[in-house]
Automatic annotation (TrEMBL):
Species the sequence originates in: Flemingia macrophylla
Domain ArsA/GET3 Anion-transporting ATPase-like: from-to ranges: 80-401
NCBIfam families: GET3_arsA_TRC40 (TIGR00345)
Family according to the record: Belongs to the arsA ATPase family.
SUPFAM superfamilies with a match to the protein in the record: P-loop containing nucleoside triphosphate hydrolases
InterPro entries from the UniProt entry: ArsA/GET3_ATPase-like, ATPase_ArsA/GET3, P-loop_NTPase
Superkingdom assignment: Eukaryota
One Pfam family linked to the record: ArsA_ATPase
Keywords from the UniProt entry: ATP-binding, Hydrolase, Nucleotide-binding, Transit peptide
Coiled coil start-end: none
Catalyses which reaction(s): ATP + H2O = ADP + phosphate + H(+)
Entry protein name: ArsA/GET3 Anion-transporting ATPase-like domain-containing protein
GO molecular function: ATP binding; hydrolase activity
Length: 403
């Protein structure tokens, strides 16, 4: 038996076999402006009797009834950061992009940033957003810009600054001056090694610190909402401890540099390198400051929230449970859990759908019994039958998720 149970956009439906209900969203009070929107829920199964309208609307409502608390997310003009993260492929980019569109359509000049080395923002918005610079996204009512950070390029900048001060460049320099003991201390920092074969998460740490650098510049001051589409869980977890590690490493290098400054200044002035070293030192100090800002930003309950995205499978939920525990341990504020791609209701399932639904129920059950996950506000997002690409599709998804 062929069976379909879908939720579809009125923008999308051309061959609606059985449109069962139209639910008009009662929009939340706008910050500046909001366009009312109607979304059509469709459910049909080719060989079974059609669903009744009342069942349809009631069932869909049960899928989406838990409000995301968007009112709270959208209120206020003070800048807020939202970081969306989870296992690979669960829909982080779609959820992040739909949130960014929703903020922009509610009056917030918004920036959506991808720090995932495998960017998919361009695919999600169906626009070319590559290039490592601010790119305007066409479509939303208020300004929405996207930024895909190039981790390779950022890492190269970091490497250059570090090498001049504490990496192999300085080590060789000091070896040459008979300061081997200090050089050994430098070896302990393992910074050169770190940069040569960076662990997962370093790229992301550097990418986010790059964003911090951008945010200090005046052209970024307009953004009141900043949404991060982060790299998959493993990277994010390592990222949380990296700023501390890097901060300590850079701090040690700077201290060391001060110690040897007097010993080397005469030699450096002979070789005319004083100015270059000072510039590099300033750069490193700035990077260190940014790392501290990144660390503080991740833990600032007033302005930042990490939203966990998952799907209803045992594997994804287990990973989300670990992520939630780690975020808690690191004092990163988490309030919401999106369970994405939930099968919409249907009176009659094919064998495949019935099995899938049972699996999903089991995964939802695990969430309810998980001490960390169950304490979060669960937002259930349905599996839709459109590919989430382009602003209209993101707006459609956003209106379902962010209520
Ligand atoms: N609720 C949904 N219904 C239907 N398709 C969805 C839904 N959410 C996401 N998708 C689709 O799933 C695919 C993966 O989504 P997305 O790129 O957002 O995931 P991701 O977690 O960011 O992936 P990655 O870890 O690879 O960056 C995309 O094709 C997207 O259109």
């Amino acid at each position: 038996m062929a069976c379909r149970s879908v939720i579809s956009s009125s923008l999308h439906m051309t061959n609606s076999i059985a449109i069962k209900g139209v639910l008009s969203f009662a929009p939340n009070p706008p910050l500046l402006h909001r366009v009312p929107k109607a979304v059509t829920f469709v459910s049909f199964c080719s060989s079974t009797k059609p669903l009744t309208k009342s069942f349809q609307v009631r069932s869909v409502a049960s899928t989406t009834e838990a409000a995301s608390g968007f009112d709270e997310m959208v209120s206020g003009t003070k800048r807020k950061y939202y970081m969306l993260g989870g296992k690979g492929g669960v829909g982080k980019t779609s959820c992040a992009a739909s949130l960014a569109v929703k903020f922009a359509n509610n009056g917030h000049p918004t920036l959506v940033v991808s720090t995932d080395p495998a960017h998919s923002l361009s695919d999600s918005f169906a626009q070319d957003l590559t290039g490592g610079a601010l790119v305007p996204v066409e479509g939303p009512d208020y300004p929405l810009f996207a930024l895909e950070i190039n981790p390779e390029k950022s890492r190269e900048e970091f490497r250059n600054a570090a090498q001049k001060n504490g990496g192999t460049g300085v080590k060789d320099f000091m070896d040459g001056m008979g300061l081997g003991m200090i050089a050994d201390q430098l070896g302990e920092l393992k910074l050169g090694e770190l940069l040569d074969s960076p662990p997962p998460g370093l790229d992301e740490a550097i990418a986010i610190s790059k964003v911090m650098q951008f945010l200090e510049s005046p052209e970024y001051s307009m953004f009141s909402r900043i949404v991060f589409d982060t790299a998959p869980t493993g990277h994010t977890l390592r990222l949380l401890s990296l700023p501390d590690f890097l901060d300590a490493s850079i701090g040690k290098i700077l201290k060391l540099r001060q110690k040897i400054a007097s010993a080397t200044s005469a030699i450096k002035s002979v070789f005319g390198k004083e100015e270059t070293q000072q510039n590099a030192s300033d750069k490193l100090e700035k990077l260190r400051e940014r790392m501290i800002k990144v660390r503080d930003l991740f833990r600032d309950t007033d302005s930042t929230e990490f939203v966990i995205v998952t799907i209803p499978t045992v594997m994804a939920v287990s990973e989300s449970s670990r992520l939630s525990a780690s975020l808690k341990k690191e004092n990163v504020p988490v309030k919401r859990l999106i369970v994405n791609q939930i099968l919409p209701p249907s009176t009659s399932d094919c064998k495949f759908c019935a099995m899938k639904r049972k699996d999903q129920m089991r995964a939802l059950d695990i969430i309810q019994n998980d001490p960390g996950l169950s304490s979060l506000l669960m937002i259930q997002a349905p599996l839709v039958d459109v590919e989430i690409r382009g602003v209209p599709a993101l707006r459609f998804l956003g209106d379902i998720i962010w209520k």
